[in-house]
């Protein structure tokens, strides 16, 4: 019992000395951590600056009306960006296949916090066929995210079941097959002829009003093939009203929306469609603004909600940083644009 009392007394004295040392006076140097044993792994903790990013406000300008895939993809992005401190207002400015909106953004002050939501059709193909008041060099890339997928679909009771048997059928039955596309003399027509080269295959191309018109004519038996969005084709494919043969997605080979559908490139055909959408700021926009927005876009690209929302409208969420975005557009400009310009000139003659 006596020994126990002595031990308790000593413990109490140690606690008092410790408390006194913590209330003032010179601080003792902290004890050094024991040296790591060979082979031990030390986990590095991320630095915590204690600072939160200040919220910013931006405008995203869409060159088409409300309700279309361009508009919806921008609005889904705007929703996702709010989680990362970027408050984005979507402004619709339809006209000139998106070029009027692009011209407007190109004339804004570099620090206007205004961004164009645009794909190569607006930034490259339209300016290449006439003066639109701007070129891609009037902009700064700020992150690419949305890539719509298009497809070549066939009527339900066709005597072919894939691209190889379709091409063989056209060769054996010249002039019989009719392909319905979205307009004439435009990029969609150009892509359709990349898929099925009329210089090698004898078929008839018919320019229709748009994706809905293509679907209506294809399921109604008025055309044999249709060039349309994968999102529009999928439910009709599942109901047996048509058959999707290939997708023409440029950033990935297989679209998660219909992973069993092969990419056009798998048949040795160079016809991937350059539709990816990204943000573009006026030339000279502050680098810190570009970085802030592009980093938020990258974070948004990992949002399961955004990924699902995009998939529901036939778009793949695939992030490219500003440098990769610029390189992608330059590849399109160097490879596909000269062929398109040559094709347009021949079409107009």
Automatic annotation (TrEMBL):
Pfam family, one: TctC
Family matches, as PROSITE patterns: PROKAR_LIPOPROTEIN
Region ranges (Disordered): 28-51
The keyword Chaperone belongs to this UniProt entry's keyword annotation: no
Biased composition (Acidic residues): 34-51
Residues annotated as signal peptide: 1-21
Assigned keywords, A-Z: Receptor, Signal
UniProt key word Signal: yes
Family as reported in the entry's similarity comment: Belongs to the UPF0065 (bug) family.
Protein name: Tripartite-type tricarboxylate transporter, receptor component TctC
Organism, as annotated: Tindallia magadiensis
Lineage: Bacteria, Bacillati, Bacillota, Clostridia, Peptostreptococcales
